[in-house]
Amino acid sequence: GQNIDQPTEMTATEGAIVQINCTYQTSGFNGLFWYQQHAGEAPTFLSYNVLDGLEEKGRFSSFLSRSKGYSYLLLKELQMKDSASYLCAISGGGNKLTFGTGTQLKVEL
Amino acid sequence: GAVVSQHPSWVICKSGTSVKIECRSLDFQATTMFWYRQFPKQSLMLMATSNEGSKATYEQGVEKDKFLINHASLTLSTLTVTSAHPEDSSFYICSAGDRTNYGYTFGSGTRLTVV
Q1: Whole-number Å distance between alpha carbons of B25 and A70
Q2: Contact: B91, A40; criterion CB under 8 Å
Q3: Nearest to residue A92, comparing CAs of A50, A43, A42?
Q4: What is the pLDDT along chain A (109 residues), one digit of tens a residue?
């Protein structure tokens, strides 16, 4: 089975940097994804990590440590439009994508 | 890029009726389709995995007779919510396996409200 944990809510200031953590336990691992989801919309792909280390993509970076079952998503230069839910997801056995609890990020002025 | 078209975007139905949700892969063949349900302020919960031409595999706790999944072609999968009740009101999203986005492309979702 799989267990994926994230903080429920986070608040940050416009222009700042925020780190959203994800810890997991899984019996099969084909990669870890981060998605952004605005209310009432489908998730939008942000990043994919399958090897340990940092993947950088513009204002967004994602880190993975497989030995620790740990990942984080780093958002820089926060903008108001970054207020959304951020979902950590694991691709496991059968290529099933299992989502974490999600972190609701609120960006304030 | 890969696109999955999901219809309808929203639907309101009476309790006891059935509702069909369609997901089509427009520019690629989807041998596998995943169906998710999302309640307000919660994450996506995988309901079932469908493979073209075979029976769907349901997650624990999901009633296969209530949530009928058909994946008759490589471009179309459907989810039918039978005898819907208010507690079935939710956001339903499909995801097709493809090589873009590292293997998963999501439909736009269907907001189901049962009254």
Answers
A1: 33
A2: yes
A3: A50
A4: 678 999 999 999 999 999 999 999 988 898 999 999 998 899 999 999 999 999 999 999 999 999 999 999 999 999 999 999 999 999 987 778 899 989 999 999 9
- CA–CA separation, A98 and B95 (whole Å): 12
User: Which tens digits make up the pLDDT trace of B21-59?
Assistant: 999 999 888 888 999 999 988 889 999 999 888 889 999
3-state secondary structure (DSSP) of residue A82: helix
Burial of A30 (0-12, 13-18, 19+ CB in 10 A): middle
How far, in Å, are A32, A36, A88, B40, B90 from residue B43 at the CA level? Answer: 16, 11, 10, 8, 12
How far is it, in rounded angstroms, from Cα B61 to Cα A24?
22
C-alpha neighbours within 13 Å on the C-beta side of residue B72: 5
Which chain B residue has its CA at the smallest distance from A43's CA?
A: B106
Q: Going by DSSP bridges, is the β-strand pair A53-57/B110-114 parallel, antiparallel, or unpaired?
A: unpaired
Closest CA to A56 of A68, A64, A65, A66: A64
**Per the CB < 8 Å rule, is B104 touching A97?**
yes
Task: Please list, residue by residue across B67-76, b when 16 or more beta carbons sit within 10 angstroms of its beta carbon and e when fewer do.
Answer: bbbebeeebb
